[in-house]
Design brief:
Distance between the termini: 21 Å
Number of domains: 1
Strand content: 25-35%
CATH architecture: 3-Layer(aba) Sandwich
Shape: globular
CATH topology: Aminopeptidase
Structural class: alpha+beta
Number of helices: 5
CATH superfamily: Gcn5-related N-acetyltransferase (GNAT)
Low-confidence stretches: none
Radius of gyration: 14 Å
CATH class: Alpha Beta
Strand order of the largest sheet: 1-2-3-4-5-7-6
Number of strands: 7
Order of helices and strands: EHHHEEEHEHEE
Mean pLDDT: 92
Largest sheet: 7 strands, mixed
Length: 144
Amino acid sequence: MLHFRKFAKEDFSWYASWFRDEEMATFLGEVDQEWLASVLSGEEGMELVVMQDGIVVGEVGIVYATADHPYHVISNVAVNPANRNKGIGLQLLREIVLLPELGGKEIRAYLSKNNGSAIRVFRRAGWKDGTEEGGMLTFCWTGE
């Protein structure tokens, strides 16, 4: 079982260090002080640290549903590069949808069509493939 907690200012240094990993930097971009300020405001969503047995194994960002898009959006999923290929990403995707804060709404994620490892994990976790637009694939979780 994974444990989720809110991202705190103190988490920034270890999280930023993960972006020295080429795959993470390629598909998630970069994190900087502007990103941190947005995350800490919590106005548009939540950024969560993912822990297993007291150890940080991942991080996930969620943008809340709005009138313009009546579904939540997973903005990023990051697994500690030292913990890849251990099933953590799969477990994270299966457990994040159960969070009460998400209120049973549809959840979407947009993945680069070049991010084969993430695409495989989303499919294995039961997320449904949607449309492709601008090099991005849409994945949906509806709880079905």
